């Protein structure tokens, strides 16, 4: 009885009782696929990376416009009579966050780091949310104390994710051990 070792076609078959493959196993992380050059005049096909980057860009720009100028941008799409400008600004902050997350996902896919790009974007996005919500309350643009609670929760979430990312970073260098001081020195 033979079992398949791995999923790569260049790896050989081996018996189920033999734990060592007959060919070396790749331990390097997979590399991101490189785009092949297209002939002149050829339409570029839409990839998930490009779609995510486009979505992230327009959502971030839309959110920024709604955040900075809610009275002039929000009515372009919706009736402003049903919602206060403070909540419109909160919506702008959330739209920018979603845009940053899309851009982080696209960056991770493009660079071959996978979900780490998205995870890093959540750190930056949450820190932005903390600053934006705090600014809204402190400058009296929107006196909703619940925003400060959300800011505090997101600060905790950003710090937690940052610690997790640093504790699992690839190719982590260890700090050199401190040598013992010679006798008489401390």
How would you summarize the topology of this molecule?
Layout: E1 2-4, E2 13-15, H1 48-68, H2 70-73, H3 85-111, H4 115-138, H5 146-167
Antiparallel strand pairs: 1-2
Folded structure, characterized:
With 186 residues, the chain is mostly helical. It is 53% helix and 3% strand. It has helices spanning 48-68, 70-73, 85-111, 115-138, 146-167, and strands at residues 2-4, 13-15. The chain has a two-stranded antiparallel sheet. A hairpin with an 8-residue loop joins strand 1 and strand 2 (13-15). The longest helix has 27 residues, at 85-111. The model is unreliable at 1-26 (pLDDT under 50).
Order of helices and strands: EEHHHHH
Q: How would you sum up the major sheet?
A: 2 strands, antiparallel
The fraction of residues assigned to DSSP E strands is under 5%
Helical element count? 5
Distance between the termini: 65 Å
Cα shape: flat
Structural class: mainly alpha
Mean pLDDT: 79
Gyration radius, in Å: 25 Å
Name some characteristics of this structure:
186 residues, mainly alpha, two-stranded antiparallel sheet, 5 helices, 53% helix, flat, disordered N terminus
Sum this structure up briefly.
By secondary structure, this protein is mainly alpha-helical. It is built from 5 helices and 2 strands.
């Amino acid at each position: 009885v033979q079992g398949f070792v791995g999923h790569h076609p260049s790896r050989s078959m081996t018996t189920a009782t033999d734990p060592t493959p007959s060919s070396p196993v790749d331990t390097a992380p997979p590399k991101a696929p490189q785009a092949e050059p297209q002939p002149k005049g050829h339409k570029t096909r839409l990839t998930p990376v490009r779609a995510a980057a486009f979505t992230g860009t327009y959502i971030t720009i839309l959110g920024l416009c709604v955040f900075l100028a809610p009275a002039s941008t929000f009515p372009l799409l919706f009736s402003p009579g049903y919602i206060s400008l403070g909540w419109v600004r909160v919506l702008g902050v959330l739209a920018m966050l979603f845009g940053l997350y899309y851009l982080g996902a696209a960056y991770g896919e493009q660079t071959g780091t996978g979900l780490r790009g998205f995870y890093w974007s959540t750190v930056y996005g949450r820190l932005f949310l903390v600053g934006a919500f705090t600014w809204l309350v402190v400058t009296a643009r929107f006196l909703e104390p619940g925003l400060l609670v959300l800011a505090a929760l997101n600060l905790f979430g950003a710090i937690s994710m940052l610690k997790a990312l640093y504790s699992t970073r690839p190719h982590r260098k260890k700090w050199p051990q401190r040598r013992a001081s010679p006798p008489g020195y401390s």
